[in-house]
Predict the structure.
Amino acid sequence: MTLEEFERRVSFNGGHDRALGKWKILDVHHIPEIFQKQHEVDFYCSDGKSVYLLRIRQRAVEAYVKITGEIIYLIAELPFDVLDDKVIEKALAKFE
């Protein structure tokens, strides 16, 4: 996704869902209150230079994988009780 496409989605969305430091973020999915092992939640994230699809999975063991292609995937597997801004910030920090 290009920066222009991201900004179009921001416009359609009525703004960013969250802004964390240099990151502007759009939620792709509804965030469940209670996570199950099979749940994963996606976010479009832009640092002003590129757009990424951040995928967060709740797992007991932390793992961080970046997959570069037409879409740059940032896949974060980490333990958490509630998926909040702190978890998203922690995940993004691992890819900086």
